[in-house]
Write a structure and sequence with these properties.
The protein has about 70 residues and is of the alpha+beta class. It has one helix at about 40-55; strands at about 5-15, 20-30, 35-40.
């Protein structure tokens, strides 16, 4: 039986008051877990490929995960 995992990259653009500028961040997801947060699309694509490959090889283990209320 095969196991499936959804991988995705999300782009978030918002105003940063401290920088007085628009800031874009990229989130790389594996299932419901965000495993990478980077500042450029190129970095996001690299991390996406690395994370996906590590899941295929079975080498990824989540060391720490927490929900933060804000």
């Amino acid at each position: 039986m095969k196991t499936y995992m959804k991988f995705k990259i999300e782009k978030e653009t918002r105003w940063d008051v401290s920088k007085m500028d628009i800031v874009t961040k990229y989130f790389v997801w594996a299932g419901s877990q965000c495993l990478a947060l980077v500042n450029t699309e190129e970095e996001a694509l690299v991390m996406y490929d690395k994370i996906k490959a590590s899941y295929i090889k079975g080498e990824t283990v989540v060391i720490k995960e927490e929900n933060i209320e804000f």
